[in-house]
Amino acid sequence: MKRNILLVMVLLALAVFSAACAAQEVSGASDDATSEPVASSDGGVEDQASLMEALRAAGAQVEAGDSVEQPFFTVMGQILKVDGADVQFFEYESAEAMEAEAALVSADGGSVGTSMMMWMATPHFFKSGRVLVLYVGDDAAVLDLLKGTLDNQFAGR
User: Fold this and answer.
1) Residue ranges of the chain with pLDDT lower than 50?
2) pTM assigned to the model
3) How far apart are CA 116 and CA 110, in angstroms?
């Protein structure tokens, strides 16, 4: 029995290590804090400034919060307070880099790559341009705001 538990722990450690190594191959966002906001060619959300602008235009109160790190994404994120709810925002250097990481998210949001999630509430993943957004919650008004600015979620429940 102890041998089986040890084997499971070793396999779990290998899975986490493999996911971390695979994530290193995906390009991250630039560390240049002075970069100018980029407008999407279709007027959609392309970066943090355009997301905040679109949410405010839809009537939401939006504030930038603390940074957030998710082990399954290669870029550092930021919390956006959208009508008081925490929405995680991840901005990538390119749309291709964002799409590469978005492709790792399972359809129900229960796993990202080899990482299995135990969410505290319902996960909702959205994407647009160079932006990936994660909202873990069930506030219908917040979901409507995100769907209105980012289209329908691409993963989650």
Assistant:
1) 2-42
2) 0.72
3) 6
